[in-house]
Each structure stands twice: as C-alpha cells, then as structure tokens.
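Box 3.1 A note on notation
Throughout this textbook, protein chains are presented in two layers. The first layer is the amino acid sequence; the second is a token string describing backbone geometry. Keep the layers aligned when reading.
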Amino acid sequence: MGVYAGDTVPYLTETFNVAPDVQRYIGNALVRDNDDVKPTLDLDFANNKSLTDDVSGDNLITFTRTTAGTYVDSEGIIRTSGGNLIRNSEEVVNGIWSLFEVDVTPNATIAPDNTNTADFVFENTNATQHRFDTPVFTSTAGTVYTYSIFLKANGRDTVTLQLKQIGEALGVYELTGDGTAHSFGNGGSGTIIKYPNGWYRCILTTTATASVTAYGRVFLQTNATEGGLGVYVWCAHKEKGTTASQYLKTTTATNYFTRYDHDPETLERIE
C-alpha cells in the first residue's frame, strides 16, 4: 500500500474519496491479516454463500423469510429459494408436535450445532406404538418432498421414518456405526448422514400423491413396555426437491433461505 510523499501514514488513514466498496474490501483485508485485531462477526459472502460467521464457525444471524423469493444464480438462471416447511422445527415439546405414548425432556443434550437444544423423546410403558409427528404442512400433488431429522440413539438405535398423507413413504434407519438406511417402501427413498458425537441426519424423499395436509413421523419400538428408552431429537426439516439442503430453523411459520443474487450479465455475485 502506498503512502503520501514524506508521510508514513497509509492512504486509508487519511480522509479522501475512495469508493465505499473499495474501502470495505481493503479494510476487511487489513483486519484479517492483523493478528491483534479480529472482528466479532465476519460474514465472508465472497467465499461462502451463507450466514456462517468466519470467526466462530457458527451461524450467529437470525434470519426469517415466510415466503419463497426468486434470485439469479451463478449461471444466470432465475431460481426460487428453498426453505423449511415445518413450523417449530426444534421444539418437540411445545404442543405443536404430536406425541403418541412417548414423553419428552426438552434441551436434554448438546445438538450438532453445539447448543443445548436437543430434546430426549422416550417411550412410556404402554404396550402400543411409540411415535411422534412433526407439525403439518400442505403438500402439492406431483411435487417431490424431502423430509430430514437429526437423531441420536439413547436406548433405541433403530427407528422408522414415514411421510404421512403424501404416499406413506417410509424407511428404516440404524443409528449406529456409520449409519444405515434401508427397507424403503411406498415410493420412498433416502439416506443417512453421520455427524460427530453420535448424531445422524435421517433423510426420506417421496413424491406427493395428493394435495393434502402432511407431516413427518418417527416410530420408536412398537409394543415395548420397558419405558425410558428413545432417541435425542433435533431439527426437523421438510422441503421441496430430492436433496436435503442446509438445515434452516423455523419458529411459528415456515422459513426460506437467504438469496445470494448474481448480475445476469457478468454472473458476479451482488453484495
């Protein structure tokens, strides 16, 4: 960086007309190269299109969008942002989820995002089905949906996921080792992704056969009477499409992803 003639102070410490974008870019570079000066929040959109903070590695921004929006992607194609169609995605105990012969201990353990927000869902001693259902959403006939949920064994290491009312697709998930997903039926397909500390993201995909009210279901052991056995639960997610995207938290309404627009001519990302 240059200096004024006869002066050792860098240009950027003086007051003169520099485009705001240039000032911001060089200022961020100076901060990142200075071990003694670190930002408390660094959103590096140029290198990753997310709200993940480069300093902590966590998402520290609360963002909500209740309706889908369009954007221009890096290929110049107009797309619609995806989102999470399940309300209250992290609050199994709040009365919006439906519980059948199970009980819940809220905030019972550390979740995959290192917060104490994972709930423990466990069977009672009644000899019947033990299951829990996500809040409902409205499906559209002929549309592909992907349902996913984070689970960790705590007494039960085998569960069955089902998408109710849109084809009854189901699959069995083993929450041990590298994780196994199998026995898909009724038009369902899916996979399982292993996370640290015993967590798994269980994923189920199907095509809606009708436009109806739908929901995701998790079965624990049927006809078990031991009581107290179950799984830790965190973050249910349901979206349009064949893949499970980055998890997006919801509260009382659906939530859609942030949009990262691009110039349709240059394809450069727009700040």
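The radius of gyration is 23 Å. Residues 101 and 130 are 5 Å apart (CA to CA).
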